[in-house]
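quick one, 182 residues, struct below
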Amino acid sequence: MNIWGLALKWFGWEVKISAPRRDKCVICVAPHTSNWDFIIGLAAYQSLGRSANFLMKKFWFFFPLKYLLKAFGGIPVESSRKTGKSLVSQIIEDFKSREYLNLAVTPEGTRSRVETWRTGFLQIALGAGVPVQLGVIDFSNKKIIIEREYLPTGNIEADMKHVKEYYSHFPEAARYPEKFTF
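---
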């Protein structure tokens, strides 16, 4: 067990990640209601010797912070206004050009309560030809769970319905359950 696993164990967290180890996948993480989601999720993945990636505005990748963010898997992204390409197409290109990319994405897109989840993670997985692994950070039971994998069909509405159905089994998992809707 590494330092990440020891820290989680010390704080009473259990890591239940049994989804296959992949060189390329999208990790859908929900619910997302707290900044602690990032820290606990990162620790859980690192505890198994896996590296996850995450997207962050390029603005934050300045010296010396950029070295820390990249070491933890950060990928700087430009807005589509600057690149002329959608974020989805930028990330699909990244999947095609990299040997390893396990991209953690929060479909809610914010820590606030939202009624409509973003579909970009499904579009990215479909376009890159990679599976979506469904991850839960369950604060109520102190468990980090990634046990299911899903291959998008291309029917975004049906795919999202399937994903939300999975998360409907975790209504009290969020750090702030009142902010989570599925």
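The first strand starts at residue 14 and ends at 17.
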